[in-house]
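User: Predict the complex with thiamine diphosphate.
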Amino acid sequence: MATVEQKGMYKVFPRSGKKVSFTHYCPGCGHGIINKLIAEACAEMGLQDRTIFVDPVGCGVFTYYYWDAAHISAAHGRASAAATGACRARPDAVTIAYQGDGDLGAIGFNNAFQAASRGEKFGCIFVNNSLYGMTGGQMAPTTLDGEKTTTTPFGRDPALTGWPLHVCEVFNQLKAPVYIARVSVADTRRIMQAKQAIRKVFEIQRDGKGYAILEILSPCPTNFKMSVEKAADFCANEMEKEFPLGVFRDESKDAGRPESRPVPTAASCAELFAEKTVIPAAEDDPSFGEKRFKFAGYGGQGVLSLGLTVAEAARLERRHTLWFPSYGPEQRGGSANCSVVVSGKAIGSPTVEHPDVLVAMNQPAYERFVGDVVKGGTVIVDETVPVNVQPSEGVNLVRWPAIRMAEEFGVPKAANTMMLAALKKFGCTGLKGENLESALVASFKKKPELGEKNRELLRQAESRS
Ligand SMILES: Cc1ncc(C[n+]2csc(CCOP(=O)(O)OP(=O)(O)O)c2C)c(N)n1
Ligand code: SF4
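Assistant: Here is the predicted structure with thiamine diphosphate placed in the model:
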């Protein structure tokens, strides 16, 4: 129970319309002791004005009524994530996350673990009472082998529910943490040790050293269904057998968290981009209507790069353009398609539901998209595709031997270049032929000889009747 003059705590705790000077914790609850130790450490070290507490969901949920400092209430399991935000936004603050074993060890394990792995600059006080206190004593990851809880009424059976989770030992595998320790509040001697360890966590934050986690074994008489004395004995004896006390790591005297690498300056950025071509901005041209393309086929047939080539040709002409790929899960052989929009004005959406031009390199692609092509539009489909489905009335259908020509030229991979030849030959893009060719060559930037070869193949294919 808090006394009126408790250091670091408010004098009264206005809660549910009442002003009381006692906390909501059950008699003999470790949270009450830990709350007092934390408040004392914060006040005695003169850190109240610098401290941001991140409160959990769990029995520790109301700490914002008690500790006289800044608070953020996090969603269940998210205190370490919220503390990450707080300490990054306020690097000079002393940020302390307060979490139960359900909160940190179960729902919030990954974000606590990742924050520790990143070495975020906050301290985590982790209260392990071996079960979910607030919700009525269910099993937590830290529940002991054989311990009875409301969800393990015959005692935890590791064959069914696994073994107790040792948070300090697991976190001790990480590189970044500066301090990892486990203490207890089961009796006076242990409470004095816990007080020192809590001060240590504050010191590390005060000095900006990095991530610290302090696990505190804590009795929950209510859910242990024990008297206050028996619950303290259970905490000191049974819990400590599973969770031995000790300091797992203390690097607080060392240099601490590495400094971030220097932020690039304007000069270093200029140097970085000096070699790069400056891309000219697109120009508005009301006379150029919007053209929408869909390129579709199997992954590996080059439909995505075909779309990209058309977009690049548009960019060379200073048209507004967007390329929007859609991949199947497989790297090769799965379906792939992309949408390209070319316009004389700013483009609203990169997606194309009703293309003016469809290039389909296989049957599934053809059948999936042919019905979407607008009246007056064009479908270019590889001649190997059986045309079981007819395009809508007013849609121009071109069956083009892209795959066969590429094979005849001895470059089967160039079937997409053959399709580009069709687009150029039939004037489907509204773009200049020379720009389509330049974009094609540019797409082989890393292998210039292939660029020229493809230009030659494109011209040959285009000249075929
Ligand atoms: C997203 C979400 N899931 C579940 C809950 C229900 N819930 C509230 S507290 C809690 C567990 C509390 O246990 P612990 O973190 O060990 O803290 P203690 O109460 O024992 O101090 C759970 C599961 C919740 N509030 N929000
Ligand atoms: S239920 Fe347990 S953890 Fe929660 S306040 Fe009561 S004794 Fe403390």
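The first helix runs from residue 30 to 44.
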